[in-house]
Amino acid sequence: MLYFLLFCTLASLFYLIITIGATFVWLSAKESSSTRLIAPGISVVVIARDEADNIEKCLRHIAQNDYPIGRYEIILVDDHSSDQTVKIARSLEIKNLHIIELADLDNPPINDFFKKAGQRHGVNSAKYEWILQTDADCFCSPLWLQAMAQNCERKDLITGPIFIDGTAGTLSRWQTYENIGIMASTFAGIKLRTWYSANAGNMMFKKDLYLQYANEIVHQSASGDDIFLINWARGWNKEIGFAKSPSAIVTTGAENTVRGFYQQRLRWATKTKGYSYSGLKWLMSGLFIFHIIVIITGLSALFISDAYLISFVILWLAKWIGDTCLLRLVAPFYGIKYPILLSPVFSILHLSYVVFFGFCGILMRNYTWKGRRVH
């Protein structure tokens, strides 16, 4: 039992090093800024499928950016929408908006499907050097283009912060804070050059870089090209950055139903099978194993022997302290506070979530997303 206690203590230290370390890296880094007027040509690529409820707000937010009108364009790629997405977009009469409908294209190449098809066709149609990608359910600030552009000096790829605006109950609020943790760990990994992650809802990269990547790499996953692209870029020693600026934040809504949440996270989990990047894979594996240890130790203390209780308390305190410190100190960047009183609830949700979807990612291959069955 002494050896098991020592093992649990080491596991707890691992978790605290990751969470407290990510917090320290976040707080010690200054927010991105530049005194130079930088206005590179930017092609904003928006990929949409059945986004009639969001597309007008998304495109208007982009079009209202404080950026030279002659230095950017908006490319909307419609992925076989069955609603009024395209009709609404055309009615906005945004001068620099170009619309591509994948349904009009004949004989798409093998492996050119779902969101990656939208990404490929959008990038190929871009006229500017830089591609700034977002999703049709995302909304940006009037300084978004400027904030992302200020980070492109001596960089090949920049990822930016995502804020999930969850206001419809415990599940959506938990998604808000969980994503803040993801953003902090993403920033820390890039800053320390140890692991690399990104979100296609807010990612900027050179067109030539993407074309080289698309020419060399073929992934069977229907999504995940954000993760694959950033890690491929790092493998070729490309310079990668994170736009740590409130103006660079892109906001999206939370999944408000259990079914919607399940399908979204199952989609995220299944693409981890395609990861071959040591830093990211070791991080995710380590965190997954830690959370399994917490649950197994807790169940052992409850059903087998009280001797496991001390080990469980050590593990649980490491989990709660690490999560709370990170979220409490990083949340103000997004203009919110992390509720201490609800933190035990959120930690329990996160504990269950990591283990459940970790096993889903290992065991499951199929999911349904926006009316499609993905295999």
Describe what this molecule looks like in 3D.
This protein has 375 residues and is α/β, with parallel strands linked by helices. The strands form 3 sheets. It has a 7-stranded mixed β-sheet with strand order 3-2-1-4-8-6-9, sandwiched between helices. Strands 5-10-7 form a 3-stranded mixed β-sheet. Strands 11-12 form a two-stranded antiparallel sheet. Strand 1, helix 2 and strand 2 (72-78) form a beta-alpha-beta unit. The chain has helices at residues 2-28, 55-63, 85-91, 114-125, 144-149, 170-192, 207-216, 225-235, 258-270, 278-303, 309-330, 343-363; strands at residues 42-48, 72-78, 97-101, 130-135, 138-140, 157-159, 162-165, 203-206, 240-242, 250-253, 367-369, 372-374. The chain folds into 2 domains: 2-25 and 278-374; 33-274, Alpha-Beta Complex (Spore Coat Polysaccharide Biosynthesis Protein SpsA, Chain A).
- The computed structural class is alpha/beta
> How far from one another are the termini?
44 Å
Q: Would you give the CATH topology of the largest domain?
A: Spore Coat Polysaccharide Biosynthesis Protein SpsA, Chain A
Shape: globular
Major β-sheet, in short?
Answer: 7 strands, mixed
